[in-house]
Amino acid sequence: MSLALVALITLSLAAVWLSYSQGWLLYYGDAEAHLDIARRIVDSQTPGYDQIGTVWLPLTHWLMLPFVRVDAWWRSGMAGAIPSATCFVLAAMFLFAATRRLWNSSPAAIAATALFALNPNLLYLQTTPMTEPPFLACLMALLYFTVRFRQTQGWGALVAAALAACLGTLARYEAWLLLPFAAAYCILAAKRHRAVVAVVFCLIAGLGPVYWLFHHWWLTGDPLAFYRNEWSPRAIQHGLPYPGRDDWRTAWLYYRTAATLCAGPVLPFIALAGAAAALAKRVFWPLALLALPGLLIIWAMHSTGGSPIFLPTLPPNSYYNARYGLAVLPLLALAASALVAILPPGLRTAAATLAIAAAIMPWLLHLSPANWVVWEEGHHNDAARREWARQAAQYLGPRYVRGSGIVSRSGTMIAIYREMGIPIREVFTIDNGLPWQAAMQRPELWLHQEWAVAEGGDPVQSAVNRLARLGIGQDHSPCYRLEQSIIVGNAVGNAPVIEIYRRTGGACP
Predict the structure, then answer these.
(1) Residue-wise over 132-148: b if at least 16 C-beta within 10 A, else e?
(2) Coil, helix or strand for 326?
(3) Which of 52, 53, 151, 440 has the fewest Cβ atoms within 10 angstroms?
């Protein structure tokens, strides 16, 4: 196991170094947002607990807290890469331990771990501050400890399984729907004290959803704000139709295609044969647990109205949530390992080597990251955002005087100030709560920052326009003059116009 750990750490570090050296760590707009949420908790005009915000679950942000305090790590994105890479290593090690315990075979465990860890889409994603690596770590821990509990009936394994499930519910919402299945399994697997097992597991695992409901009630007065406020997936989707909505067949097609693009063309076929072998050996729970995240995503695509997947190989031939296909990578890896486990001991090492080589060969033959759908999704969708952030930072950097202040809506715009190397506490944003609302409603009284950075049509632009209307003929009224407009066109994708204003004082023209 120690050699596996060393190999995984080396592999993860190599991937982080590649992403860092190529500037890929924050390709995803969501990665930028997750990093900056964590930074706002410790660096904001109103730092503290409330900066966790709503909708996005908090575990990813909590894991970054020790690292975002270091300015250089926040500015480079390394503060997000460190916990994600750690979660990747933990996920792979728990998969190794669970597979070896299931099959009593080290070659089978090595095969499952290698098929999981050598996937270039996952290797890239584990260098970014996204929610998938922490979720996978929790899922693999849940797998290991539930398998261990069945075999040992130990209370420690039960509590560890419940803790893994609880943490999973604070990483991704799919884990909420895993809870009843995991609880039912632990109850059925228990050979004694089933009522106690049920109480212990449910009390510990259920703390995550209960906490999150209370968190939203505390911040907004609505415990379900994450499901129905303006930032929820349903609201972002605006009820628009997409492939798979109310159509099980299309939802299955799109998710199956996403899984194949993420896993590669060979692994699903190996896994299909392996699943048959695993079922023949009466191994049901591990396959069921690892299949659930993918099934839940298909259900969400069909039923919730906020979980579309767009793929380059299917209409409308674009990228959105393609990375969701990685949710079944552990299932494919574990199922494939069953083919190794059913062979005589003398053939298992050769079979594991053959399975690994067959699965990774397509990736080796096409080494370009353009063939990694997860990398390409971030590269394609957020190119325009990265470009206007670079241009805005380039313009503001030499002109901004520390302490003079910037007003800006926040969100991915924080990338501008991160690239400038100024702390978030110098920026007045929507995340500052009531003071922000007051400034947007009465800018003539409360807006005093020297610079304003607006995205076309956002509240900052409206406040600046309000000042212009109020300032006509009143020399004492402040004014913001447009200094720079940044327009990123079709060469790298469309993006809103970014307008940079500077406070002049006096009458507005």
Answers:
(1) bbbbbbbbbbbbbbbbb
(2) helix
(3) 151
Using the CB atoms, write b or e for 64-76: b if 16+ within 10 Å. beebbeeeebbbb
pLDDT tens-digit series, residues 430-462: 999 899 999 999 998 898 899 999 988 889 999
CA distance 412 to 425: 16
Pairing of β 480-486 and β 427-428: unpaired
Q: What average pLDDT does range 60-87 have in this prediction?
A: 97
| pLDDT given for residue 472 in this prediction | 53
Find out whether 170 and 213 touch, Cβ atoms under 8 Å: no
CB 480 within 8 A of CB 452: yes
Q: What is the mean pLDDT of residues 477-501?
A: 78
Whether residue 100 is predicted with pLDDT greater than 90 in this model: the reply is yes
CB 364 within 8 A of CB 300: no
CB 258 within 8 A of CB 324: yes
Question: Rounded to the nearest 5°, which phi and psi values hold at 382?
Answer: -115, 20
- For 104, residues 6+ apart whose C-beta sits below 8 A from its C-beta are none
